[in-house]
Design goal:
disordered C terminus; 3-stranded antiparallel beta sheet; mainly alpha; 8% strand; 62% helix; 2 domains; Arc Repressor Mutant, subunit A
Length: 224
């Protein structure tokens, strides 16, 4: 295999490691379960699964549903070896694409109404995702999960997903409350309020001395 595998490659191999799927089922899995964290076009999935088969990392077989044939993809031993090698590598750094933050940072050149509209859209989207997360949660609790035999793994992912969405929903609520007060405040008052918010952010900060006092190199320390 000469080509470099992508995140989409590993994502599909991960799905195939759980059970065999048709290309259509893989697309539906992405549409239903992964569209918020793995936003790939359906065409990219169809292309990639065929490439994995060409690389020998997946194999194809034909099944019939009535008279209609369908291609089923299953991971090979070579595909499992590639996945095991990938699992042994360091995970990539946490990253998140969240467009509303860009719009928030340039809010001074727009209008307050525009920012409020953006935040309300994010909140509506977040609550839609929370409703979906609740549906999946209920399916597993009722024994109807797509991979019920791995509920112990799915529970951790659902916990992360719903916790993150609840955090975003609460942040939007707080932010809307702040933004809607701006018309009655001067810039100085807004900045003062910003410092009050920062003072209440629950995060550990380095001691002042560690920022202001340089640490002598080890070689200098030994000479003293």
């Amino acid at each position: 295999m000469n080509r470099k595998l992508t995140t989409t490659s590993y994502a599909l191999l991960t799905q195939l490691a759980l059970r065999p799927w048709s290309a259509y089922e893989l697309v539906q899995q992405r549409v239903r379960y992964f569209r918020f964290v793995w936003p790939k076009a359906e065409s990219a999935i169809y292309r990639e699964i065929k490439k994995l088969a060409e690389d020998g990392l997946a194999e194809m077989s034909i099944e019939h549903t009535g008279r209609r044939p369908r291609t089923i993809y299953q991971i090979t031993e070579a595909g499992l070896d590639v996945l095991r090698e990938w699992l042994a590598t360091p995970v990539g750094p946490f990253s998140m694409e969240f467009e509303v933050m860009l719009r928030l940072f340039i809010a001074p050149i727009g209008t307050r109404q525009q920012l409020v509209a953006n935040l309300r859209q994010v909140q509506a989207d977040t609550r839609d995702m929370l409703m979906f997360g609740g549906e999946v949660n209920r399916e597993y609790l009722e024994g109807r999960g797509a991979l019920q035999d791995q509920a112990y793994i799915r529970a951790l992912g659902i916990d992360f997903f719903i916790s993150l969405l609840n955090m975003v929903d609460q942040w939007v609520d707080r932010t809307l409350g702040e933004v809607e007060r701006w018309d009655d405040m001067t810039i100085e008052e807004r900045n003062q309020r910003g410092l009050e918010i920062l003072a209440g952010v629950p995060v550990a900060m380095p001691e002042q001395t560690s920022r202001s006092t340089p640490v002598a190199p080890a070689s200098q320390t030994r000479r003293r």
